Amino acid sequence: MGDIVKIVAQNKKAYHEYFVDEKFEAGLELTGTEVKSVRKGAVNLKDAFCRVEDGEMLVFGMHISPYENGNIFNREPMRTRKLLMHKKEIMRLFGQVGQKGYALIPLSVYFRGKWAKMEIGLCRGKKLYDKRDAAAEKSAKREMDRAFKEQNR
Question: Of 62, 87, 92, 116, which has the fewest beta carbons less than 10 angstroms from its beta carbon?
């Protein structure tokens, strides 16, 4: 029986802005009050991105609201946080991001058991026409579903 996964925050904008080619799981290095805030769901991934610096995976732009009972222990909400991954994985991602024009985008934050984790996507940017195609496809599917529903009444 696997660990219980509780999703805290998702980055829906990422799926609109990028093609997600591969997904990876990374641990989040957080302080005590940050963990409490994350458990409450006070996380925003909207403008977050990941980068490899000095052989470490870092996440920038992730906002974790200060914990209201944390007083002096609260940290800066927008601080750069370290992600925990195997060195081989980090170096492989570093190579792909450098060569092929990929970006590392946080897709979701969740708890696997008691551990805070982040799902990272190896993403390619969508062009405007790709976004239009995706929107047209979505609306066409919605129309088909609606028609089938009417037909089955």
Answer: 87
DSSP state of 4: P
Phi, psi of 140 (to 5 degrees): -65, -40
Which tokens is 70 given?
């944390």
23, 10 Cβ separation under 8 angstroms? no
95 vs 104: CA distance, rounded Å: 12
- The values of phi and psi at residue 139, to 5°, are -70, -35
CATH homologous superfamily of 5-126 equals Small protein B (2.40.280.10)
Cα–Cα distance, 132 to 138 (Å, whole number): 10
Which pLDDT value is given to residue 53? Answer: 84
Q: What is the pTM for the complete model shown? A: 0.72
Q: Are 105 and 121 in contact (CB under 8 A)?
A: yes
Alpha helices in 18-127 (DSSP H): 32-40, 87-100
